[in-house]
Amino acid sequence: MPSFDIVSKIDGQTLDNAVNNAKKEILNRYDFQTSKSTIDLDKKSNIITIVTEDDMRLKAITDSIISRMLKQKLDPKSLDFGKETIASGNMIRKEVKVQEGIDKETAKKIVAKIKESKIKAQASIMEDQVRVQSKNIDDLQKVIALCRAEDFGQPLQYINMRN
Questions:
Q1: How far apart are CA 152 and CA 146, in angstroms?
Q2: For a tag on the chain, would you pick the N or C end, based on fewer CB atoms within 10 A?
Q3: What is the pLDDT along the chain (163 residues), one digit of tens a residue?
């Protein structure tokens, strides 16, 4: 029976390249010459840590990261910008989580959308992904088109198409 998986993943190396390019861009800017700003990516926990002096610089750094992600063809919807916290002295720290995997709420929305569309396909939640099965490959392609048209709040990829 033909099937495919709906997942939400970010390529770690591409994300690392985007963060490194943003770091180089920030270090070369004139308004950051005397800044003690740092950008670090923890590859294991997928958290980008930004430490800087003020809100203006924080906004410039986040904008730079987003623009570099777009140039690397990564979707910035996968970034979860948390609250700023006060670091030592007059510094501001912000931890940006990179979301991977589809959470339960989004998976339920995807399954409900497929069911209400009346396409003859079965969707099932498997941990952090959704598997869609159908007797007809054309129905699977209709499901992909349906999911691409809808905004579920995080980037989706469609992998493992099997016949």
A1: 11
A2: C
A3: 889 999 999 888 999 999 999 999 998 989 888 888 899 999 898 999 999 998 899 999 999 999 999 999 998 988 988 888 887 788 899 999 998 888 898 899 999 998 888 889 888 998 888 999 999 888 889 899 999 998 888 888 888 888 8
Q: Any residues with CB less than 8 A from the CB of 111 and at least 6 apart, and which?
A: 123, 124, 125, 130
- Give exposure, 54-67, as e/b (b: 16+ Cβ within 10 Å): eeebbebbbebbbe
Question: pTM of the prediction?
Answer: 0.81
